[in-house]
Amino acid sequence: DSLSRLFSRCGHVQSVDICDKPGPGEKKDKLASKFFDHKTQKGFQVAYVVFRKPAAVQAAKALSQEGPLLISTERHPVKTGISKWIASYEASIVDPKELKAEVDAYMQDYDKKVAEEEAKAAEEEGVPDEEGWVKVTRKGRKPGLPRTEAANLRLLEKEKQKRARKELLNFYAWQHRETKREHIAQLRKKFEEDKQRIALMRAQRKFRPF
Question: Which residues in the chain belong to E strands, given as ranges?
Fold first, then answer.
């Protein structure tokens, strides 16, 4: 806005493009959304001022003889410091209604584009081209498996194999625990039998530990 105001004395300013470094001068596509893909250039920058008439370029070159051009003046101040931070913070607050309207409009355009592509594919289905080739799509007589569905099937198969391996490992662990439990039970049973045998031998006075 400041550059447009400064150079408007030379002629009608058609556009001002700000870049982070000099380039071929090709005009970049302007952002269609102020919510998404918004990147602010920081630091020293280069600006391309485009006038409607070529004569304004010569007038802009003559401005260098008048002295430096002031972007921030008392009449047109440029916010800096705390006031700039406050303005940046207020600009960062998104209006939910405005955002929803933009998203809805984008989705409507997307759905319309998809419908047009599907209608065009349906019209071209089975129709040979100039060389006699017939284009086969997923909407043909034998539609192929969509890539997303195939990916889901592969993922489910991997999960199934992973679950089977886990169940097998759990089974082995359970079998190991059962074997260990049975071994401990046998040791306890043998210990009780030995205690009873020792008690019986003591009662018969035939116990000789050494």
Answer: 13-19, 46-51
Residue 122 belongs to a domain:
no
Average pLDDT, the chain: 78
Based on the structure, what is the number of domains in the chain?
2
Whether this model's pTM surpasses 0.85: no
Q: Is the pLDDT of residue 198 over 50?
A: yes
CA 139 and chain centroid, separation: 30
**What are the backbone angles phi and psi of residue 50, rounded to the nearest 5°?**
-110, 120
Any domain includes 160: no
CA distance 19 to 40: 10
DSSP count for the chain of H helices, then E strands: 5, 2
DSSP 8-state class, residue 204: T
Residue 43 lies in a domain: yes
50 within 8 A of 16, measured Cβ to Cβ: yes
Bridge partner list, 134: 128
What CA dihedral angle connects 197, 201, 203 and 207, to 10 degrees? -140
3-state secondary structure of 134: strand
Cα(25)–Cα(137) distance, integer angstroms: 42
Total Cβ atoms within 10 A of residue 135: 12
